[in-house]
Amino acid sequence: MHQAYQIHSILKQGVHIESIAGYDNNVILGTRSGQLIMYSVDKNGAVDMLMFNKNFSKKAITQMEVIAEENLLFVLTDAMIHVCDISRKENNFTFIHNSQFTKVIRVCCAIKRRLQFFYWKLNLLASPDFSIDLKDIPKALCWVDDLICVGYKDEYVIYNIKYNKTEKHDLIVTSSSYNIDPCMCLLKNNMLGVSKDEFLVAIDPNEYLIKKDDKSKVQGSVDVAATDTKTTLKPMAWSSPLLALVWDAPFVVGRVTNGLEIRYLESNGISKDTLVQSIPELNKTKHLVRSAPGTIFAAAISELWCIRLVDISIQRHQLLQQKKFGLAIELTHISEEPDALKSDIIRQIHMRYAKELFALKQFSSAMTEFAKASADPYDVIRLFPNLLHDQAKPTTKDSFDATVPTFPMPQLEDKDLENAILALIEFLALARQKEVVKLRDTKSSSKSLLSIIDTTLLKCYLQTNDSLIAPLLRLNQCHLEESEKTLKKHDKMSELIILYQTNGKHRKALELLQAQAIKEGSSLYGHERTIRYLQQLGSSHLQLILEFSDWVLKADPEQGLRIYTEDFIEVENLPRASVLDFLLTRHKLLVIPYLEHVINVWHDNNTFLHNVLIKQYLEKVQQLMKELDKEEDEEKCEHKTEKMETLNKYRTKLYNLLKISYNYSPDVVLKDFPTNTMLEERALILGRLKKHEKVLAIYIQILGNVKKAAEYCETHYDEDQDIFFILLKTILSPLNQPPYEGIELHKDFLKPNHDVVVDLLNKYAIRIDPCKIWPFLPKDMPLHRLQNYLDTVLRTQMAESHHLEMKKALLIAEISRVEGLIRDQQNISFEINEFSVCPECRKRFTNQSVFVRYPNGDVVHLSCHDKRVMASNLFEITDIVIELLEVLLNQILYLRDVYPTQIFKKRRIYNTPVYVSIYPPLNSYLHNVLKSAREFLKNKELRCLEAKLYKEDSEEYEVYRFMIANPIAFNKEKQDEFLIDFEEQMRASLYLMAERLKHLPKLPNDARFKVLLQTTQTAFVKFSQNPHHQDFPWLCANCVDKPTSKQEEISLLPLTSINSLNISLMADIVR
Fold first, then answer.
1. Which of 332, 413, 590, 959 is 20 to 30 A from residue 363's alpha carbon, by CA?
2. Is residue 612 part of a domain?
3. CA distances from 707 to 696, 713, 717, 738, 796 (A)
4. Are the beta carbons of 1056 and 961 closer than 8 angstroms?
5. pLDDT digits (tens, 9 = 90+) for 847-884
6. Phi-psi category of 1044—alpha, beta or left, where left has phi over 0 and alpha has psi -120 to 50?
7. Domain tally for the chain?
8. Does the reported pTM lie above 0.70?
9. Same domain for 510 and 576?
């Protein structure tokens, strides 16, 4: 116990004190005989009588209240309220008040069983005609905002008088075993302190405003009452029932039977005792009043004392010796010391308190105190054995002298060590967040403390919770060598892979994966983890991918091929020529599956890849054919059937590719095909070269397949209308010897086949010119066999002739009609004078103007007409630019992880995979932004579009600038009609963007996104008045450039560029 207050005696004998009031260093006494006396007590205890009014009242002064801010004294005497001006001491507190105070002071008086309310305003005490009827005469009153707490003889109740509507809530009974009057006062944070037996119960009155009064009273113990009212402070026990209460932060001064007791509201540091000081010599006290912080006046019947707070620095020293840290901190908060010194002392006390709690093995509470002290995480980690690799850094010392004891640290083992580490994890997690914010705000590049914190957290997680190791390692701040050593010691190979990956040690990671893949029981057993790792590396690490995919492809070719065919952007962007070269050299069996995926799934149109796939198919088919030629034994019949099925499968794939694909070079692949076999495939290639005679010779004279020959002619008839004539000529003029060595001519076509010729003539009569085919027909062919063909030809010729005659007549009639319309239009006259105005430009026509008249009668300048025609084409190019910007913005948001990846869906645009948002609020924002951008772009007023990634306080992380030159309408007939070149440029731009953004550092979690449009002030004003864009208003941004400090680095990274369709777009990143 220490001395918190010292006592000064002011008055020992003289008057009969009935009531007291105080403010500052002054105390006002109201006597039984109606006198008012005012004393002043300085800091040294010297007493001075400032005023003595012996005729203030004829009756006893029962109660007084001071409002020092307004120099008002409210006095209750002889059932009347007097309001005095305490600034006029020389006039003995005149009743005239001349303050300019305009606020309302509310006054509540207990008149028997009623609460009557008054208000003081403009020197007048008036009543608002509002009162509350009570069930009994109140013994104590306390006002809290719009709440009034009333203490009866047997219970406490609270009234809510907001809006002059009364709501009653019962609190607790006053006492269950003592016949004493209730007492109450306001504590800290507007908490209400009420007495109950030997306890002070702290109540939050606001909690009762949300409850309905259930008319129930708690008659049980104080603990039950405390639970029901959900107080934040536990009931405080006193030596005897409370008779009076005063709150003087941070102490509660209470009058008990044996004198005064000073107590601290909360548990006092390590000790749970709340008693601070006992003053038994003031056991005769009847009145207590607090006049100022640290000053309390106490009065008996005829005695008066001043109770002053002892100097805080003296108390603090005593409290630290007694290990009452909480009270020492509270007193330091209210001290008058400089703020910097005060903050430093409080921090040191928290540190002392934390170490004491740690010594007592109260680890969670200790870490809370360390956090309050903003302790250096390094000093806290030093308290734990084997957590720091380097402990050479000296321990921070405080400024307290040697009389304040220090605490020996305990040896932590078993359960204590586990509890301590769990508490340390919570402390370090909070310290890490603060350090990250500090590094970001100061833009410092030193991360040594963050590395220590993360490395220590890693060691703690290894001892407590393995599941948290992987998320920590992905933050990439752990000390590499120390963390590597620790993870190997605990055999955490999966987590070690993450450590290597986040630190860019990919070779080490892949070597470890290869070594662990063959160890049974290892978490990395097998090749699946290696496949996923290689898929994420990207083209910048192509050599590593090729090197370490080799063993996976050997172990499991089918699964290993996923390294190069998985549906990831990183995998799809790998250079396919390099991958193909690797597979051809080391794993030739996988070339065909790889190329099939690239061509059939990714729709790659590269001619080289198509040529290689055709060649691989050809080699596979030839190999199988050779093997089948060798296997002629009956014993291998089953194996031969299986190979035949495989041969048919690959030959079908080759045939379909040659038939469907238009991306291979037929002249190149033809050189590899044999001339004595695979003639159907050769025919397809020759067909691509437009060598119809050779194709039909293969189909007719070698294969004897008239059906395929006819199908070929039907397919190519639009390109060459003589192709059926070539077919008949081939049948009617057979070759004398085969066109290729090693093959035989078909026996049915060694001589002209009249039956086939007649069938073809009858079936395709309208497609075969009789003038061309007639000289080739055999002279001995009976004419009746040609009757059907000739009848069809003649009827067709006559129908065409009749159709041409009708068409000619119709055209003549149409010409006559149009000539009449032209004459009618030429007869139309109109007048252009000095008052005529062009509806497009609103300008008058000059004498030399060239003009155009529209069918509706509008007359415009020729230049205005040209502009209108160009504008119709410009709208189309504007929509293309807007779509382009939408795709680029979605890609940036996805690649930079501004939003969760779950809100993006993979789509194929510009013949390449892109990620597009499916989140409605984001889509709505982008739609409205691009709608506004389209309006500016259409009017050639958009200078630049900026996508900013920034922090809440507007600090910019990254700015993506899209510089757009004003688009010009393009001619579809001359400029990329099918947008093929434009699509190629967009595809290349998206791949380039993915590569460049992948290497940028990860954005913080608080990154936000917005779009800015740069235009002219005139355009912005015009746009703001456009009624079609009022539902999405824009604000004018502050574009003043901030000065760049020497330490701040700004980098400009070209992102992509597009020059096609008269579009010129440049994209840059500013970091």
1. 332
2. yes
3. 11, 10, 15, 21, 25
4. no
5. 767 888 888 888 888 888 877 776 665 556 788 888 88
6. beta
7. 2
8. no
9. yes
